[in-house]
Amino acid sequence: MQSGKHWDGRYEKAPPDQVSWYAPHLDRSLAMIRDVADPSDSIIDVGAGASTLVDDLVALGYSKISVLDCSSRALEISMKRLAGQAVGITWMTADVTQAVLPADEYDVWHDRAAFHFLTEPADRAAYARVASRSVKQGGHLIVAAFSREGPSRCAGLDVVRYDGDALGRELGPGWQLEQELQESHITPARIEQSWVYCLFQKVPHVGHP
After folding, report:
1. Residues of the chain above pLDDT 70, percent
2. Integer Cα distance of 169 and 115 in angstroms
């Protein structure tokens, strides 16, 4: 996993609405979250960058929100943008593969554009362990990543491209794929990118209660 220094540099080089992964609103993510979570549920946005997802969740009445990213600069941008609305939000500067998160804490884990940067198997395994430990039984995990037809590099880094089955294999047997959707994302530079959005539910391992 790349260090926060790399991502701090990306946000210092360009405004948040000019990075390639920017979208004014993460409509697909919001729809998936609203399908599975009530406003009283606990949500964590992993690899959030300076995304407006937290703004929209607050506007919809969600009150238990955690925002995690390895870039302190990205989180500063979001905190400044939200200003007084940021009360009650938990902000975490951390590499998700090394993060120490509370067990059985989150009803929804959301990740748009973090997992596909994990090119090392050990990092993907660490990510899966953290997610499995911190998401409640019956809770949901949403991952949006470059699809099989998506770009092979982003932000100067190699990525891994996915479909739902491949993501499921990386996450392990404790997750059941419930929904898989394709999305065409148009970057601020008007370049089209192919993404896949996958919704998983945490289920008991075979042979375990």
Report:
1. 96
2. 13
Q: How far is CA 164 from CA 144, 156, 195, in A?
A: 10, 25, 11
Total Cβ atoms within 10 A of residue 131:
26
CA–CA separation, 209 vs 203, rounded Å? 10
Its sign, for the CA torsion 171, 110, 106, 72, is positive
CA 107 to chain centre: 14
What secondary structure, in 3-state letters, does 103-125 show? Answer: CCCEEEEEEECCHHHCCCHHHHH
Q: What is the pLDDT of residues 41-96, one digit of tens each?
A: 999 999 999 999 999 999 999 999 999 999 999 999 999 999 888 788 999 999 99
**What residues have CB less than 8 Å from 134, skipping those under 6 apart?**
44, 101, 102, 103, 104, 105, 106, 109
pLDDT at 2 (0 to 100): 54
Domains of the chain: 4-202 (3.40.50.150)
C-alpha triplet 57, 83, 8: angle, nearest 5°: 85
Integer CA distances (angstroms), 155 to 115, 152, 163, 169, in order:
14, 11, 21, 26
d(CA 152, CA 89): 34
